[in-house]
Design brief:
alpha+beta; six-stranded antiparallel beta sheet; two-stranded antiparallel ribbon; 8 strands; about 25% strand
Length: about 230
């Protein structure tokens, strides 16, 4: 018969109950158990309202499902293309994976912005979006469904390669007349995020409103949610 006790990092360790039979002592040392390795998502330095590193796996979704690593900062990187993308809401990736291709558009409800380079379009990208702090928490869904608001987070991620996936689609919106350096792009996004309301509310201040306003700020042209 076995009982369980709680070990480090929340793992459950099974331990056998004492037996009435006499056992021979072991001469060798027991092998230390290896703690399970938990991948901790990493984020760029945060500004007001931006998320910091966390050990909650759902925070990095849907990017973690792409198995792409964040590229290190590179002073030589420039961004001159702006793209708008759509993907499933956090937590709905398994549902999207089970749907046929013609129906994936029904669950691509999360809108984001991606910066790219026309000279090296497949090397890396910077992905910018706005979503609830706890996107899979039932209380978040209840607050939003009832017309209320919930704390939001601004995510800024630099990825190796172009963001891709079976349930993700992106399209080129425009090419900038002058390319932004990596530092210029980050500073521009930081300034924008510091002024944006971090309380997310459906139909009033959600990922679509954020993406359209950020697109307007970076491009100098006027965009609305219908343009996304």
């Amino acid at each position: 018969m076995q009982t369980s006790r709680r070990g480090c990092q929340g793992s459950t360790i099974l331990a056998a109950e004492p037996s009435s039979r006499t056992r021979r002592p072991h001469s060798g040392r027991p092998k230390p158990s290896q703690a399970s390795k938990t991948q901790v998502p990493t984020f760029l330095p945060c500004a007001q309202g931006r998320t910091t590193a966390t050990n909650t796996p759902t925070v990095s979704v849907p990017w973690s499902t792409l198995e792409q690593q964040r590229a290190p900062p590179d002073a030589a990187v420039t961004w001159d293309t702006i793209h708008v993308g759509h993907m499933p809401l956090v937590g709905f990736e398994p549902v999207a994976a089970m749907l046929p291709d013609r129906l994936t558009g029904l669950v691509q409800l999360h809108t984001f912005l991606a910066l790219g380079s026309s000279q090296h379009p497949h090397d890396q990208c910077m992905v910018l979006d706005f979503l609830p702090e706890r996107p899979t928490d039932p209380s978040t869904a209840l607050a939003l469904a009832s017309g209320g608001s919930t704390p939001g987070q601004f995510r800024v991620r630099r990825l190796k390669g172009w963001i891709q996936g079976g349930s993700i689609r992106t399209r080129l919106v425009l090419k900038l007349g002058r390319a932004l350096s990596d530092r210029e792009a980050l500073e521009a996004v930081d300034r924008f995020n510091s002024r944006w309301d971090s309380r997310l509310r459906l139909l009033h201040n959600d990922c679509r409103h954020y993406t359209a306003a950020l697109l307007t700020s970076l491009s100098g042209e006027q965009f609305c949610i219908d343009d996304l």
